[in-house]
């Protein structure tokens, strides 16, 4: 059994679950209002008066994508809480790490499983994995040719896992929990973005009843669609419970 770390009496976890969900909604509403009122100018400067949720979550993303990003975070966080609240889930949105893109969602089932989730949507395009180069590439449906996806979500997910082991005190984790708890790195593609369906068969793994693209680049990262998230989490949780 993993040993729990005894936190100090004044310890507070980063915003998570319902409190974080409310902050996301607050930030999304504020971003939408500012975008309508000032044509995006207020977003570029951060506006004048900030609700706390906006400061914490909205400023982590680029102004031109922040409203959509927050809407996706809201939907996925709410779905996870509705489905797994009885399992003791902790959902931590928008964890900022150094100079990199934030962890969209860190999901913790204490002493069972950790999930690092990146949510990405790049329009009506397909994602292809180039095995020879070990890179994700973007294929436009109306044009020929591929371009490398930068920054690479697979490398970002690997960085997130390393970050947790160095910053476990934020969650009052023992060293053992941070390093020994099974983890899953997940790239969630949001419609209309999709993964190509013609990858080589050895690139797929079975998770429960699901057949999922599992790419091994600095560890394994699973590539799933937005509508598969709940089923994936259920299967992964069942595996380690």
How does this structure look, described?
The chain has 241 residues and is of the alpha/beta class. Helices cover 35% and strands 26% of the residues. The strands form 2 sheets. The chain has a 7-stranded mixed sheet, with helices on both faces. A 4-stranded mixed sheet has the order 6-5-4-8, with no helix packed on it. The chain is globular and about 55 Å long.
- Described by the principal axes of the CA atoms, the overall outline is globular
The total beta strand count reads: 11
Strand line-up across the major sheet:
1-2-3-7-11-10-9
What structural category characterises the helix and strand content?
alpha/beta
Strand percentage lies at 25-35%
Mean pLDDT: 88
**N-C termini distance:** 12 Å
For this entry, give a set of tags.
seven-stranded mixed β-sheet, about 240 residues, four-stranded mixed β-sheet, 11 strands, about 35% helix, disordered N terminus, alpha/beta
In short:
35% of the residues lie in helices and 26% in strands. It has helices at 17-38, 41-45, 52-57, 66-84, 153-166, 175-180, 229-240; strands at 89-95, 103-109, 113-120, 125-130, 135-140, 146-148, 183-189, 194-195, 204-207, 210-216, 220-225. The protein starts with 16 loop residues before the first helix and ends with a helix.
Write the layout of secondary structure elements.
Layout: H1 17-38, H2 41-45, H3 52-57, H4 66-84, E1 89-95, E2 103-109, E3 113-120, E4 125-130, E5 135-140, E6 146-148, H5 153-166, H6 175-180, E7 183-189, E8 194-195, E9 204-207, E10 210-216, E11 220-225, H7 229-240
Parallel strand pairs: 3-7, 4-8, 7-11
Antiparallel strand pairs: 1-2, 2-3, 4-5, 5-6, 9-10, 10-11
Helix pairs in contact: 1-4
């Amino acid at each position: 059994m993993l040993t729990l770390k005894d936190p100090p009496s004044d310890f507070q976890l980063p915003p998570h679950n319902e409190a974080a969900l409310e902050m996301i909604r607050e930030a999304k509403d504020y971003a939408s209002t500012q975008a309508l009122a000032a044509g995006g100018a207020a977003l570029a400067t951060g506006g004048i008066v900030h609700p706390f949720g906006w400061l914490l979550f909205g400023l982590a993303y680029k102004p031109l994508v922040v409203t959509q990003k927050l809407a996706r975070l809201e939907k996925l966080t709410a779905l996870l809480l509705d489905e797994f609240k009885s399992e003791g889930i902790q959902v931590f949105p928008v964890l900022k790490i150094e100079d990199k893109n934030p962890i969209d969602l860190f999901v913790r089932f204490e002493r069972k499983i950790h999930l690092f989730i990146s949510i990405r949507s790049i329009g009506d395009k397909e994602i292809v994995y180039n095995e020879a180069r070990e890179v994700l590439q973007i294929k436009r449906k109306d044009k020929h040719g591929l371009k490398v996806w930068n920054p690479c979500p697979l490398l970002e997910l690997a960085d997130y896992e390393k970050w947790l082991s160095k910053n476990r005190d934020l969650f009052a984790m023992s060293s053992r929990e941070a390093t020994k708890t099974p983890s899953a790195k997940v790239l969630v593609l949001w419609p209309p973005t999709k993964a190509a369906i013609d990858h080589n068969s050895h690139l797929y793994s079975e998770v429960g009843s699901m057949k999922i693209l599992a790419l091994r680049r600095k560890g394994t990262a699973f590539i799933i669609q937005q509508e598969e998230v709940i089923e994936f989490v259920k299967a992964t949780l069942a595996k380690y419970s």
